[in-house]
Structures are given as C-alpha cells and as structure tokens.
Amino acid sequence: MDTFIINTNATYIKNILISEDYIKVTDEDYKTKDAFLEKFNTKKGILDTRHLIDYKNIEKIVLYEDELAYQVYFKENDKKEMCLLHLTTLQQYNEVLDTILSKINLKKIDIKIRTRAWIKPAIYTLIPALLTFALFMSAKQLEAGENVQVSGSRRGLKKIMLQISEYLGSTNALLLGSVVTCGFIYFAYRAYQKSTIEQESFIK
Fold first, then answer.
1. CB neighbours of 91 closer than 8 A, spacing ≥ 6?
2. Which of the chain's termini has less CB crowding within 10 Å, N or C?
3. Quick one: which of 99, 125, 115, 124 has its CA closest to 178?
C-alpha cells in the first residue's frame, strides 16, 4: 500500500510517495495523492524538483534522527543525485526507513561528516581584522599630519576609534590587532577541528 506524506514545513521536499517499487518526491505541495501523481506525470518545469527513486539505485542514506530526516544518495537516469527527506513524526521516520531498508541490502556504519559549527567563529574573525585595518589607517593618517574628520552615523564610536589610533600609533595598532585577530583565527580553527562528528548511515 502506498504512503503519501505531506510536510509543508520541510525546507526542500514537500511531498513524498512511498510505494512498493519506488519513492517519488517533489518540492511542491500538491495537497492530495491524486494531484501529486497527475502533476508528477506531466512535463517537468525548469525550476521543478522531482525525483523517482528506485530502491535498487539507492547508494547511501545518512540519518538525522533529531531532525526526523535522512539524506538519500541515489542514481537517477545515470546521474548521481541526492535529496533530503523530512518526515513529520518519529513513527513515520522509522516506518519509512524500515520500508527502504527492506527493499535493498545496505550496511549500517558510522561516517564522519563536517557540521557548520565552525562558520560563525570564522565570520567573527573578520571583525578584529577589519577593526585592525581601520585603526592602522587612522593612525597612519594622524602620523602624517592629516586631519581625520569624524562625521556621519555612529560618530561616537568613530571618535573612540580615532582616540585609540592616536594613543597606540600605527605600529602598536597593527601589532595589537594582529594578536587579537590571530586569537580569533585560533578559536575558529579549533571550532573547525571539532566540527567533524560521526553520523549513523547505511551504505551499499
């Protein structure tokens, strides 16, 4: 018996049809199984995402139980494809996974994947780097005897930065800023190292 799944909260795949021989998915919500099948069998638009996944062509499944999702890697029309399937309940998550695993022989293993936990620390590294550059340039202008005007929005912050530039000088501003930036780079690197986790999966 076919199982038609609607998940309008999913980021990518909204409709999933689980049948005896294949899985059909689309990125649009067609509300009913009949409307889904009717649309699926018409010519696909350029921006439409549709996949017909033959069980025997599934090569890997990576599980994300905390998100009630799994990433399915498969071949379709001799091309390697991937899609993320989000389910609505834990029971549905387990039932669909059991159905897939009953159709194809996959080996359960833990694979290492890299999360995005390192991205924020890497972005934060730009802040001291930009501040260092701004302080250094202001200090160089002051040392050259130029008149550095403070105007526009955030005038108070600019005035404080100008005072710091004057106090430190270009050399000290560059040295201090480099030390702080290197500290941020170190923490970003540590976050990158720790971003690799083991994820439960099934592969051929």
1. none
2. N
3. 125
Dump pLDDT digits (tens) for 123-155.
999 999 998 988 888 888 888 777 766 666 667
Rg (CA), the chain: 27
pTM for this prediction: 0.64
**197 falls in which pLDDT band (50, 70, 90)?**
confident
Is pLDDT of 177 > 80? yes
Q: How many CA atoms, within 13 angstroms, populate the side-chain half-sphere of residue 194?
A: 10
Q: Give me the CATH topology for the region 3-105.
A: PH-domain like (2.30.29)
Mean of pLDDT over the chain: 88
Which residue's structure tokens are 């040295």? 175
Is residue 25 within 8 A of residue 15, CB to CB? The reply is yes
**Portions of the chain given CATH number 2.30.29.30:** 3-105
The two three-digit tokens of residue 42, written as one number: 């018409």
